[in-house]
Design the sequence.
C-alpha cells in the first residue's frame, strides 16, 4: 500500500477523533482523556470538546453526571477527565518534589480529617485548620489548605467526588498497589504512550517526544521507563512515514489513507484544546497557519481574541470564532486565515453550527 500523503494525514486527524456522537461514558472512553480548563467562553473546554462527540450534550452535563460515572479528575499530560481504569497506570504516583517535614505533617492531618469526615469542601478544611495563605504556582495567593488538598489528590490519597459551583470536593481514596517490578513499570509506561498516541495521532516526531515529556506530569516516577518505551514504540510498534522532512507516527492498526476518512459537510467550532487542534506544531503542518490561544495574552497584543475557537469546515481549519452569550442570543465574531468562504453552503453550515451551539448552552 502507498504511503499516506499530507492530505491523507489531515483527513485522518479529523475523522479518527470526530466519531459518530455516542453516550458520555463511551465518548470519554474512546477519547481516553479530556483536557479540562476553567475558562467559560462560552463554555468550559471539556464541554466544548464533548459536545461534538456526545449525543444531545449540554454544557455542564459532565459536571452534573460526574459522580455517577466511572471517570476521574486527574493528571495525564495535563489536567482533565479520564476513565477510572487508566489511574492504575499512574498510581500510586510519586511526586517529583517531596514535601518538607512541616508540610508532610499538615498534609497527614488534613488526610486524617477527610478520612474522618467524608467528602469535604476546601472551605471546610480551611475553617478547621486556618492554614493561611501561600504563593501558588502562578505567583498569586491561595489558601494553604487548598494546596494541601491538591497535593494529596495529586499523590493519589484523595479523589474528586464532585464539584460545587466549580470547586472540587474531595474524599479519601486508596489505590491498589502497582506492580513495581521492572517489567511492571515498563508495561505501564508502554500503555501510557499507547494511550496518548491513540488520542493525538497522527503525530509529528517532535510532538510525540513532547507528549512523552508531558507524561512526566501524570507519571513522574516512570520518566525513565516512558523514554525507553518511546524508543521501542518508534522503532518497533508504531506505523510511520516521512513527508517533507517530517516523520509522522500513528497506531499500527490504523490506515490514515483509508477512504473511510472522507470529511462530512458540517462546520464545527472546536475548543482550543480539542484533540484536532491541541498540537500547535501539527496544526501548522496540516493547515499551513499558526493558531494561538490568547486568553492570557494582554488584550492589545491579541490577534485571535480572548478565547478563539478554531473553525473546522470539511477537513480544513479555515479560521476562528469568539463566541459570547451574555444572557441572550449568541454574539459571535469571526476571523479567517485566508479569504472567507462565500456561498450558500458555507453560510448554511455556519448557521447550523451556531444553532447547535445555542442549544448546547441551554441548561437542562
Sequence:
Amino acid at each position: 500500500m502507498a504511503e499516506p500523503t499530507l492530505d491523507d494525514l489531515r483527513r485522518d486527524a479529523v475523522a479518527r477523533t470526530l466519531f459518530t456522537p455516542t453516550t458520555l461514558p463511551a465518548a470519554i472512553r474512546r477519547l481516553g482523556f479530556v483536557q479540562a480548563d476553567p475558562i467559560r467562553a462560552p463554555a468550559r473546554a471539556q464541554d466544548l470538546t464533548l459536545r461534538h462527540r456526545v449525543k444531545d450534550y449540554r454544557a455542564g452535563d459532565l459536571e452534573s453526571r460526574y459522580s455517577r460515572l466511572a471517570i476521574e479528575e486527574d493528571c495525564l499530560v495535563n489536567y482533565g477527565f479520564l476513565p477510572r481504569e487508566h489511574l492504575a497506570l499512574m498510581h500510586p504516583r510519586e511526586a517529583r518534589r517531596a514535601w518538607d517535614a512541616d508540610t508532610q505533617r499538615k498534609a497527614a492531618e488534613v488526610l486524617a480529617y477527610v478520612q474522618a469526615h467524608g467528602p469535604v469542601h476546601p472551605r471546610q478544611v480551611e475553617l478547621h485548620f486556618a492554614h493561611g495563605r501561600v504563593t501558588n504556582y502562578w505567583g498569586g495567593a491561595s489558601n494553604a489548605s487548598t494546596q494541601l488538598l491538591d497535593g494529596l489528590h495529586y499523590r493519589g490519597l484523595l479523589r474528586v467526588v464532585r464539584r460545587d459551583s466549580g470547586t472540587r470536593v474531595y474524599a479519601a481514596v486508596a489505590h491498589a498497589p502497582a506492580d513495581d517490578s521492572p517489567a511492571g513499570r515498563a508495561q505501564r509506561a508502554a500503555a501510557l504512550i499507547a494511550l496518548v498516541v491513540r488520542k493525538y495521532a497522527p503525530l509529528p516526531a517532535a510532538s510525540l517526544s513532547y507528549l512523552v515529556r508531558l507524561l512526566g506530569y501524570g507519571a513522574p516516577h516512570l520518566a525513565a521507563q516512558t523514554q525507553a518505551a518511546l524508543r521501542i514504540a518508534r522503532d518497533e510498534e508504531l506505523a510511520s512515514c516521512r513527508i517533507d522532512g517530517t516523520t509522522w507516527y500513528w497506531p499500527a492498526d490504523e490506515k490514515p489513507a483509508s477512504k473511510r476518512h472522507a470529511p462530512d459537510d458540517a462546520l464545527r467550532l472546536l475548543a482550543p484544546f480539542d484533540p484536532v487542534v491541541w498540537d500547535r506544531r501539527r496544526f501548522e503542518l496540516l493547515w499551513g497557519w499558526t493558531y494561538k490561544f490568547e486568553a492570557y495574552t494582554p488584550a492589545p497584543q491579541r490577534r485571535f481574541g480572548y478565547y478563539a475557537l478554531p473553525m473546522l469546515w470539511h477537513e480544513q481549519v479555515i479560521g476562528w470564532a469568539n463566541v459570547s452569550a451574555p444572557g441572550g442570543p449568541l454574539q459571535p465574531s469571526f476571523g479567517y486565515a485566508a479569504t472567507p468562504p462565500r456561498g450558500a453552503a458555507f453560510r448554511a453550515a455556519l448557521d447550523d453550527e451556531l444553532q447547535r451551539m445555542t442549544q448546547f448552552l441551554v441548561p437542562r
